[in-house]
Amino acid sequence: MDDAYSGYKLTTVAIVFIVLEAILVGLRFMARHVAKTPWGLDDFLILPSLLFCWGICILSLVMVYACGVGHHADYILTTSPETYISWAKSAVAVEIIYCTSVVFPKLSILAMYRRLFPVKKVYRYSIWFLMFIITANGVSGVFASLFSCQPLAIRWNPAIVGHCINVTYYWRYISLANIISDVAMLVLPLPVVWKLHISLAQKLSLTVLFLTGSL
């Protein structure tokens, strides 16, 4: 028995986020219905955002109950080597779904910025540029995962002759690009907010609101 088992933690987090995401997106569309507000691009983008975020949560549950996630690798290799193979295969799926689940929520937020702040061309171009960078990063992440090994089966069968990229570098550069885009999205609405002709308290409230939403 693996005394250090921690799979229940991931299970709890995944279930909580599935429920939370469903409630929040449901409230969003309920507000649209009550206010009789037409859908914008940000609303259409939130739907694939929800599906991919659910996908990563559901895959996490599958990996806990079918792929040994939560146990130490040594324990899995000793007690059930075939489970380790399932884990290695599912890890590829995690990389792919993760890249897409990060892209769509960011695109939805940027589309909301575009709808709320139809101001100067520089601001609009900045939004489109960020959208392009985020999409390109997501697509490159998917392809990097799919072609991380030649052949891909090396990921779950090291006995196969071939070569692989450095997975550590893969995650490092994907994460770095995501962090940079996160910071850019945090900063982007602030100049517009602080130029509005409203009270300081309202400006601070909006700043907190956008910073929280971007996080």
Provide a concise account of the structure shown:
With 215 residues, the chain is mainly alpha-helical.
What report would you give on this structure?
With 215 residues, the chain is mainly α. It has eight helices and two strands, in the order αααααββααα. It has helices spanning 7-35, 41-66, 73-79, 81-116, 121-146, 167-187, 190-194, 200-214; strands spanning 149-150, 163-164. The chain has a two-stranded antiparallel ribbon with strand order 1-2. Helix 3 crosses helix 4. The two termini are 39 Å apart. The mean pLDDT is 87.
Features:
mainly alpha, 215 residues, two-stranded antiparallel ribbon, elongated, 77% helix
Q: How would you state the average pLDDT, rounded?
A: 87
State the end-to-end CA separation: 39 Å
Shape: elongated
Number of helical regions: 8
The biggest beta sheet reads: 2 strands, antiparallel
Q: What is the number of strand segments?
A: 2
Quickly give the structural class.
mainly alpha
- Could you state the order of secondary-structure elements as H and E? HHHHHEEHHH
Portion of residues in beta strands equals: under 5%
User: Which bin fits the share of residues in helices?
Assistant: over 70%
Describe how the helices and strands are arranged.
Layout: H1 7-35, H2 41-66, H3 73-79, H4 81-116, H5 121-146, E1 149-150, E2 163-164, H6 167-187, H7 190-194, H8 200-214
Antiparallel strand pairs: 1-2
Helix pairs in contact: 1-2, 2-4, 3-4, 4-5, 4-6, 5-6
